[in-house]
Design a protein that fits this description.
alpha/beta; two-stranded antiparallel ribbon; 9 helices; about 15% strand
Amino acid sequence: MSDAGRHGTGGLAERLGIFARTFPRQTPEEVAAAVAWAGYPLGHWNFAAVGRSTLAGDVGRVEVAIPSVSATFNVIHPDPERRAAQTAQAVRLIGLVPELGAEVVTLCSGTRDPDDLWRAHPGNLASDAWTDLRRTLDALLEAAGEAGVRLGVEPEPGNVVRDARTAARLLGELGDDAPAGIVLDPANLISPETISRQSEILAEAVDLLGPRVVGIQAKDVAASGAAAAVGTGLLDYPAVLAQLASLPPVPLIVQDASEAGAARVRANLLRWEREAS
């Protein structure tokens, strides 16, 4: 599993994955078996799937094709000591990621909220938040370059990189040669209030970020605004897949599906892709 781009070729059936933590088990082998049983060839790895910290410091063999590994933590946490400690943990994890056969390490861009990684905070808009983001990323980018992997930053509405435009700003500052790209989740860009503009918002994201998208995540938006499993919310997923078809053939990873519903989500996505083609 060392060939570059091996997780980013073929049709959707070959590029379709799911969060490994959808299937909490005691061992990586049990997680891999559950991922395969649900019909997914890929599993986005998070050590939380086996009851470990996301930033766990050791790597064992995982018998599932892994396109990406989560190293998510609050990269602009208001406590600088905590931020530094977790950055060091993430750097160590990034160095181990090639042993799992992965090409991408996924991150969020953080929030000034001290307690909730996904909750918006007024301080996220301040210049010092962006400065801290860049400072943390510098260390992570160096580690990614040394490991031969890429960082995938996911725009989140409650974080510093909150939409396609701030993601494009970050990529522009980092430069084309940086080992970094974007993990694009359409549900993060659209709310119940903006659902009528779904096509416009996603078109802008594809236009701004297209060549630098290193992964796609798939969930839905409930009427309450909460995350939901694909096909249970407000997004027009056949239309979403049609717009995403212009992106590079990167892995598409299902998020927020239940274990019981994972196979159904897979079947729906493949059906919608056929209908869109």
